[in-house]
Amino acid sequence: MANLPTEYINNIDHPPFEIKHKEADLYTFDYVFGGKAMKEADTIYNKLRRRASNAKQYIKKLLTN
After folding, report:
1. Distance in angstroms (rounded) separating the CA atoms of residues 30 and 24
2. How far is CA 4 from CA 1, 12, 44, in A?
3. 46 Cβ partners below 8 Å, 6+ apart?
4. Which DSSP symbol is given to 43?
5. CA separation for the pair 52, 40 (Å, rounded)
6. How far apart are CA 32 and CA 26, in angstroms?
7. pTM score
8. Intra-chain end-to-end CA distance of the chain, in Å
9. What is the DSSP string of 9-38?
10. Do the beta carbons of residue 37 and residue 29 sit within 8 Å?
11. Mind listing the pLDDT tens digit for each residue in 9-37?
12. Taking the C-alpha atoms of 53, 37, 44 and 48 in order, what is their torsion angle to the nearest 10 degrees?
């Protein structure tokens, strides 16, 4: 990309203010950035399930060696 030609883009006009839209921000976080999966992985049930799975793998490793 370093050898791409460039050209003048005129002035960039930014809006004078911004408005927060909490529902839109939450939707974007959940579905664009994976927030929903992160929240689901952080539940107590899933944490316990991961710990149980790790313990099962550890015990299995100890018994097979």
Report:
1. 10
2. 6, 21, 50
3. 40
4. S
5. 17
6. 10
7. 0.48
8. 52
9. --PPPPPS-----HHHHHHHHHHTS-HHHH
10. no
11. 889 899 999 999 999 999 999 999 999 99
12. 0
Q: What is the DSSP letter of 3?
A: T
Token reading at 7: 């050209």
**Structural domain spans, the chain:** 22-64
Amino acid at 36: K
Q: CA 53 → CA 23, 43, 49, 57, 60, distances in Å?
A: 36, 15, 6, 6, 10
The closest alpha carbon to 26, from 38, 37, 14, 35, belongs to 35
